TrEMBL record:
It comes from Candidatus Fusicatenibacter intestinigallinarum. GO terms for molecular function: glycosyltransferase activity. InterPro entries: Glyco_trans_2-like, Nucleotide-diphossugar_trans. It holds the Pfam family Glycos_transf_2. Coiled coil: none annotated. This is Glycosyltransferase family 2 protein.
């Protein structure tokens, strides 16, 4: 009788293309006979598997009294393991056979094998269960690493329940599992309530290996989705303590928003915002009765071309509904279907404020719009597309703004999109106040755009060569001539989202993006600025490289205390990667304690003739240290640089210098990234963050994610940027006294930026200069008692000095966006 020795070391599903199941181990007999290994299952059907034998020399140290054959080890592989289920198999066994006896050395249920393999790749959840009208609306997500997870709806008897499904991107899931940012793991299921007759339904997600189920008790679902059920779920006794704490922390207004959202989770944040900001009939009536001191005529110019009559009616009706009455609607019709003109005459023939002209032929959007401008006799020109709509208070708000400052030449507003049926408003574009460099990056103004007729007379009409971006070219020309540009942070225009429009499908009009690039290039040519304008991979967004004039000396100031490795990485990257060569580096030594750093200083001085070591022997004060460095700088431009910065963009100095050389610019900042490519700095918003002082926008967001309105990827003007990598004119730095030394650690850079803004100079965030930042490795975070106290004092000082801007709000950040988070969600 043979005595078998064996071990199954592990079994594992390699859930890849082949869904291979592997069992690995060893087997031998006391007598040393040759042993074969085979797979058996409780099915009469045949299936393929592979057995690979191998040497296990490691066994000699364990089984010293036995002879270890050269093929004692084995690996059994079965591809597409899930197919055994279709063959009726319920278990697998490994059988060892020495020719005389057989021994079962492994047994496992197939279901367990599949579950163990599948659960390593199948993830999902049912997040929200709501009832909307007569339908169940279910939100969740399902993710399978190697396959598309299957989603089913079953009743308690296992019978399918009919449903509709929409897949959507879930950024939170994609980030959690490190998936492609475009992967649609999210699902929204819509089920007619009358189609569910069972007491329970099951949402099942599955892959080829296993499944997960999420049961829904229909009695509880119906109860929870009554008005009283929703109320108790959010405001009932069980939530009393939690709600009281929330009110205390966030205030009653924020709690109201939270409660509405929780009770109506199928309603978007923007739906709630719209409801909160919708004007009542009483308010609209009050506007109609109001008389302004200055009541200019607004001529609304619209080109028509075979406009669908229902869309045209919606547009004209929205203009007739305006609460401000002194307007003129100028319609230039290039249609060839013979329907538009008769429709306007039939429906609006008695409206004297409508001016209609039938063009001899359709000459394209620019010339057709020019036809409308030619019949305009108003004081201001307003532009609109032929199938969009405007809010009833749009003209009232525009004229109100003109009365607040009679020198205003241009007015623009916020906007959103509306579905083709005109029922759902979404994707609001909450814009900053006038932002010249953002406008050069993208036509963020778009709608509504209103310009004084005198400006139009100066710049001329729309230009056909820019068709597709004719409005962008026109806006740029008008803004070049305007003295004052006013932004109204209210959604007053609704852009209808056609499947083939740039609002809905950016790839449908590539010619328009090239026309936009040409418009920006022409703008720079008109103002005499040498620039290279290129398209980016984000359609409709442009990169402008301003060409450096001459080769001025740049002084790079780097404060340092110890941290030899960080400083070495920083300086090496400057010398090895930078393409601009006319610079000097001033390392400002501040009370280092290690011998290696002083040895490194000596090494640096020997290696680089344009590097100096300055000694600041007083206590650490970031502002004072940089001021000290600036006194010794020989350059025309200063770069304030942390010692934990590493160069990524090779032409970073040229990119920043090109902007900093402009007369209207005082500071240029860069995009800073953590080593894992997450964003550390993409601009600073005043008033953002828990302290209500200033915060980094989109902090820790992935660099390759398109953020709200392209904020992180578009060069633009801001109120502040970080001094971890900041270029500024030395003359300006000296003029305003450098950094305020009262801000030893915190807010010194923001304070400096705001004082530069007081000099009517711009602060530019250069989105195409990227540097790595190993944030605060030198001095650490504000976690010590003395640091916390100092931070509190500097916070109070900042709030007192900049109380005006904190109250009014950062002009480069829309007041409809939250300041409690850094991701530009709607303010509750």
């Amino acid at each position: 009788m043979s005595k078998f020795y064996w071990s199954v070391d592990f079994d594992n599903c390699n859930v890849g293309d082949n869904f291979s199941y592997e069992i690995e181990g060893w087997v031998l007999t006391e007598s040393g006979k040759k042993v074969t290994v085979s797979v058996q299952a409780d099915t009469d059907e045949t299936f393929e598997y592979r057995v690979k034998r191998k040497n296990r020399v490691d066994l000699r140290n364990v089984l010293k009294t036995l002879e270890i054959p050269s093929d004692a080890g084995f690996t059994v592989s079965i591809d597409k393991i899930y197919k055994l289920r279709d063959l009726g198999c319920t278990y697998l066994e490994l059988i060892a056979d020495d020719g005389e006896e057989k021994q079962t050395i492994f047994h496992k249920e197939l279901q367990k094998i599949l579950e163990e393999g599948g659960t390593t790749t199948l993830e999902g959840n049912l997040d929200i269960q709501e009832k909307k009208d007569d339908r169940m609306i279910l939100w969740g997500w399902a993710y399978d690493k190697y396959d598309n997870a299957k989603i089913e709806v079953l009743d308690s008897n296992g019978q399918p329940v009919p449903f509709k499904m929409k897949r959507e991107v879930r950024n939170d899931v994609n980030r959690l599992f490190h998936l492609d940012k475009e992967r649609k793991c999210g699902y929204i299921l819509s089920i007619r309530r009358q189609d569910v007759r069972a007491r329970k339904i099951i949402i099942r997600i599955s892959n080829k290996m296993t499944s997960k189920e999420f049961p829904i008790d229909m009695k509880k679902f119906d109860r929870d989705n009554t008005t009283i059920g929703k109320y108790l779920k959010v405001l009932g006794p069980s939530r009393f303590k939690e709600n009281r704490k929330r009110i205390k922390e966030t205030g009653l207004q924020d709690f109201r928003y939270y409660a509405i959202k929780e009770m109506n989770r199928h309603v978007s944040d923007y739906d709630i915002w719209l409801a909160d900001h919708k004007l009542s009939e009483k308010e609209l009536k009050k506007q109609r009765e109001h008389r302004f001191e200055y009541e200019p005529k607004i001529s609304i110019v619209i080109p028509l071309y075979n406009t669908p009559l229902d869309f045209l009616k919606a547009l004209i009706d929205s203009i007739q509904s305006q609460t401000y009455a002194n307007w003129q609607l100028c319609l230039a019709d290039g249609s060839n279907n013979g329907q538009v003109g008769p429709f306007i005459q039939r429906m609006y023939g008695k409206e004297k404020r409508i001016s209609y002209v039938l063009l001899e032929k359709n000459e394209g959007i620019s010339e057709n719009t020019n036809g409308a401008i030619r019949i305009a006799d108003g004081d201001f020109i307003m532009f609109s597309d032929h199938d969009d709509t405007v809010a009833p208070n749009a003209l009232y708000e525009i004229v109100k703004a003109l009365n607040e400052d009679r020198e205003t030449d241009v007015v623009y507003t916020d906007e959103d999109k509306v579905t083709m049926d005109g029922k759902t408003y979404y994707d609001p574009h909450f814009k900053p106040d006038f932002n010249l460099d953002l406008l050069r990056s993208n036509n963020y103004i778009c709608h509504i755009f209103v310009v004084k007729k005198d400006i139009v007379n100066q710049v001329g009409l729309l230009r056909k060569e820019y068709d597709g971006a004719q409005d962008f070219d026109f806006i740029l020309r008008c803004c070049e001539k305007a003295h004052k540009i006013k932004h109204i942070p209210k959604v007053l225009y609704h852009w209808r989202n056609h499947p083939a429009s740039t609002a809905g499908d950016p790839t449908s009009k590539m010619y328009a993006y090239e026309a936009g690039r040409a418009a920006v290039a022409a703008h720079f040519e008109r103002i005499g600025m040498k620039a290279e304008v290129t398209m980016t991979d984000q359609f409709g967004r442009y990169r402008t490289r301003l060409l450096v004039e001459g080769e001025p000396l740049i002084s790079i100031l780097i404060p340092n205390k110890d941290h030899k490795e960080d400083l070495e990485k920083c300086i090496r990257s400057i010398y090895e990667k930078s393409t601009y060569r006319n610079f000097e580096i001033l390392v400002i030594e501040n009370n280092s304690e290690t011998e290696e750093i002083f040895s490194f200083y000596e090494q640096l001085k020997k290696e680089h003739s344009n590097l100096r070591i300055l000694n600041w022997k007083k206590p650490f004060n970031y502002s004072a240290i940089n001021n000290f460095g600036a006194e010794h700088a020989r350059g025309e431009y200063l770069v304030l640089l942390n010692n934990d910065i590493e160069v990524k963009t090779e032409d970073w100095m040229e990119e920043m210098l090109g902007y900093c050389q402009r007369e209207d610019v005082g500071i240029v900042g860069a995009k800073l990234l953590f080593p894992d490519e997450r964003i550390q700095h993409a601009g600073i918003i005043v008033g953002l963050g828990p302290s209500g002082t200033a915060g980094h926008i989109f902090y820790t967001f992935p660099n390759d994610v398109f953020t709200y309105a392209g904020k992180t990827s578009s060069t633009q003007d801001l109120s502040a940027v970080t001094a971890a990598c900041m270029m500024t004119k030395k003359s300006l730095y000296q003029k305003i006294g450098g950094m305020d030394e009262a801000f030893a650690v915190a807010f010194n850079d923001v304070d400096y930026c705001l004082r530069v803004r007081e000099q009517n100079k711009l602060v530019v965030y250069q989105a195409f200069v990227e540097m790595y930042h190993y944030e605060s490795v030198t001095r650490g975070y504000e976690d010590k008692p003395e640091n916390a106290k100092r931070f509190e004092q500097e916070t109070k000082r900042f709030k007192k000095r900049w109380a005006k801007i904190l109250k009014a709000g950062d002009p480069y950040y829309n007041p409809n966006l939250t300041k409690t988070r850094n991701d530009c969600v709607i303010r509750s």
